[in-house]
Structure formats: structure tokens, C-alpha cells
Amino acid sequence: MKPISLKRTGLLVAAGIALAGAGYWLGTQRAAPEAGGAGPAAAAGRRVLYWHDPMVPGQRFDKPGKSPFMDMQLVPVYADEDAAAGVTVSPTLQQNLGIRYAAVRRADVADTLELVGTAEFDASAEEVIQSRAPGFIDKLHVRSPLQRVRRGQAVATLFVPEWIAPQEEYLALARAGDDVLAAASRQRMRALAMPESLIAELARSGRVQSRHTLTAPIAGIVGELGVREGAQVTPGMTIAKVVGMDTAWLLAEVPEALIGAARPGMQVVATGSADPRRTYRGKVRELLPGVNASTRTARARIELDNRDGSLTPGMLMRVRLSGAKTASKLLVPSEAVIASGTRSVVLVVEGGNRIRPVVVATGREVGDDTEITAGLAEGQQVVASGQFLIDSEANLKSILPKLAGSAPAAARTPAQPAATTHAGVGKVEQVTDEALTLSHGPIPTLQWPPMTMDFKKPGPGAFQDIRAGQVVEFEFVEGEDGYELKKVVVSRKDKP
User: Fold this and answer.
1) Max CA-CA distance within the chain?
2) Signal peptide: which range, if any (predicted)?
């Protein structure tokens, strides 16, 4: 009986161990997706490159776990789904999102500038009406500035008292038949600025001409009217100014960075807001010296044909300046370029409906297109619309940070100034491969009070001699992904 009991006991123990092992295996298999966040796909043998929080895609982790930023598990990124290779957009998704593609093309275009200008009077076509003798305004035929006048139209009638005596003297000599003295009297009237037309009328009619009418020398607009009826005038005094309207000036604002591209003689096409279908043509007359300190623009003086008189001063117009020579340029639709402020990105379509972001260097805009100076080749397909829907669909924010080190030389921005270094003293609460958790004292340079927070390590192998519980002196800088440690040494102080 005793050998049988021992055998039965051994079988029961072995069965218990087997059941316990099976339970442990099932428990670990069920807990793996919850603890690691890898999900069923991780169990299929796919290689995980790293884990990240989709809400903070720039931060990577080398093991699964709970996100330190959100109340969720970290999401794995697999080797066969590396974001650097781009994303795939199916034809159905392309249609649903309204995505359009466009080809990168090369075209011969002239250097063009898109500017804004304001119409003005052509000052070179201005004529001045002046009084040549002292007198009074007997009648003013033009009553207000900006009134249109015809060539030869009466502007003002002058009464000149000092012309009366010489005319009476001339008439008396003429009646007496003294031709020599009469000729001398005529010279005296000319010296008093009496017009030949009045002298001829005096000799013909035999009556004193005390009033003289001033007329418009050209057809145009009365730009200035400096007198009123009854006003006294002196020699050389401006009665009115008449500006011709056959041509008009347009003062276009040229950004300081484009001053070198604007040249006298460039052809101009201008359109106004009143009738965008109507175009005016002309050329750049000259570039005015000086740059406006507030707008940082210079002004180009443009001469436009205005024989129909439709241009009036103050009109705001869009101006396109074109050079005489053309050059071959690589162009994409302007809507295909995503400008972030530090770089410009274009989504390139590759085989298998894969879309990959490419950092490009851009030049000037040519109509609805943008010049590409680096990053693309002729014939490539780019996404012309729906980029931001793709960004939302494929989480391109986790792709674009990778491109920071692969931008072409022409697209890189100038070096930024070095980040400010801050220093503090604190106690090490936790050490991980990514960060140190420090309970630090005040940081005067940032006006921080004492607190406990994570500081990013520059690399997994940094500060290997630092342990939890130590009091350390540390230095850090503010980066794009948070605050990064630069120096950590054990402090001799007893407390932070």
C-alpha cells in the first residue's frame, strides 16, 4: 500500500506543476499586449524599431510601456512600416480625400516680380499757368482742383491796371501818325509782359485791352488751383497747374530682398481692382533711391499708357514685372509646397501609390507655380492638393522630423544662436536610459521654483555613474523635445 501511495502522490504533484505552468503561460500571453502595447502584430514575429506616443511622435522609446505624456500605451513602429519610406494612399482613399497629383515640369520663363503699386499723376506731363504781370483775378473759369479741362480752355481772366496807360499812349501816337514813337510804345508794352495777341487786338480795334484770359496749355486735370476771384496776383505767381493724362505713373513697392531683380526697362502688366479683366501695359521708368524704413521696400516708377483716361490717382493695382530674357526653371504648383517657416516640403508620389515627403529649396513664384531650385527632378509626381488630409491620415508629423538632417544645402536655414545653458542642484529620484528624474531647487535663469521633473539625457550611455538618491549639480538647455542635460556631476552638498 505504501509504494502505491507514493506513486499516486508523485503523479498529483506533477499534474499540479503542469497546470500551474499552463496558467502562467496563458497569463503572460494575455498580459503581453496590455503591458507592451505591441498588440497581436508583435506576436507575429515583426521586428519593432521603437515605441512612441502618437500624440508626441518626436519622442522614441526602446521598450514598451505606458506613455509618460498621455494615459495610453506606447505604440510600436515596425521595421516594415518605417515612416522614412513614406506612406501608402490607396486609389479609394485618394478619391475620398480629393487628392490631386501634378507633374514637376521644366519651362522657359522670364524673371518676374509680383508687386503692388499705387497710381499717380505723371509729374513730367505737368504744365504751370502763371501770371506775368501784377493784377487781379477778374473771373475764374475753373472753380475746383481735379476738374478736367481741354486744351485752350479758359482758366482765369486777369485785370492788369498798369497795361492801360501804355495802350492809351500807343493809340494817341498812332492817331497822330508818329510811327517811330508808336513803335517805341509797342516795345514798352512788350516789356510790361503784355501778350502779342493783346497788342494786335489793340492795333486792330483801337480800344484799350485791360483784361487778359489765361488758357490751359494741354488737356488734362487741374492738379492745383492757387487763387480765387478777386485775388491779387504778382508776376511769376502760379494760378493753376494742369497735368496731362495720356500717361500715368505707378509707384510699385519692391521688397528690399528683390531690389536687385528690378531693372529699368522691364515690361509691366498691371491690373486694377475695379476691372480685373482690364490690363495696362508699360515699362519701368526708373528705380527711386532709398528704402522705406518702416516697410523695407523701395519704389519703382512705372509709366503706363492712359490715353483713355481710365487710370486715376490713388488706384491700387497688382503689377507684374517681366524681364526680356528667359531662363529654364523647374516648376511645381504653388499649392503643392508646404512651407513651415524653417523648411519647405513637397509630397512626392512614388511607385505603388507611396507618398514620401521631400524637403526642397524654393525660388520665386511664377504665376500659380513656384520655382524649385533643389530637391526634385523633372517628371516626378507631387501631391497638388489634399496634403494636410494626408498629414492627418498618415501622421506625417512623425515623418518630417527625420528630414531635418537630410535637407539639401540650398534649403538649410542659417545657423541659429546657441541655446542658453541653465544650471541647478537637485536629488536624483530615478534613472532611465532616456532621462533623469530630478527633484531640484530653484532655477534662477528660468525663474523656476523647486519641483520634480524629467530631464532628457543626450544618449542612453550618458551619465552612467549617476545613481538614484545622489545629490548632483547639473546643467541643461531647452531643446525642441524638452530640456536636455549637458552636464551632471555628484555634488558635495548634503542636500539640494
Assistant:
1) 182
2) none
Q: Are 479 and 456 in contact (CB under 8 A)?
A: yes
pLDDT at 159 (0 to 100): 92
DSSP string, 213-251: EEE-SSSEEEEEE---TT-EE-TT-EEEEEEE-SEEEEE
Q: Which amino acid is at 293?
A: A
- Whether pLDDT at 483 is above 50: yes
Q: What pLDDT, on the 0 to 100 scale, is given for residue 255? A: 86
Measure Cα distances from 60 to 52, 429, 430 in Å: 5, 22, 18
Give CA–CA dist 69/395, Å, rounded: 18
Pairing, β 220-225 against β 154-159: unpaired
Q: What is the DSSP string of 245-272?
A: -SEEEEEEEEEGGGGGG--TT-EEEEEE
Domains of the chain: residue spans and CATH:
2-81 (no CATH), 84-121+245-413 (2.40.30.170), 123-239 (2.40.50.100), 421-490 (2.40.50.320)
Residue 86's pLDDT is: 60
CA 209 from chain center: how many Å?
66
- CA 491, CA 496: separation in Å to the nearest integer? 9
CA separation, residue 284 to residues 123, 269, 377, 461 (Å)? 15, 10, 35, 64
Rounded CA separation 332/107 (Å): 11
- Cα–Cα distance, 258 to 111 (Å, whole number): 11
Query: What average pLDDT is seen over the chain?
Result: 78
| pLDDT given at position 480 | 67
Distance of CA 324 to the CA centre of its chain: 26
Q: Which three cell numbers stand for residue 340?
A: 513651415
Residue located via cell numbers 499757368: 129
How far is residue 25's CA from residue 69's CA, in Å, rounded to a whole number? 31
Q: What are the tens digits of pLDDT across the range 353-406?
A: 777 888 888 887 777 888 888 888 888 888 887 666 665 545 444 444 444 444
Rounded Cα distance between 392 and 396, Å, is 7
Cα–Cα–Cα angle for 401, 407, 413, rounded to 5 degrees: 95
Tell me the three cell numbers of residue 130. 502763371
Specify the pLDDT at position 81. 57
For helices 164-176 and 196-205, the axis angle rounded to 10 degrees is: 40
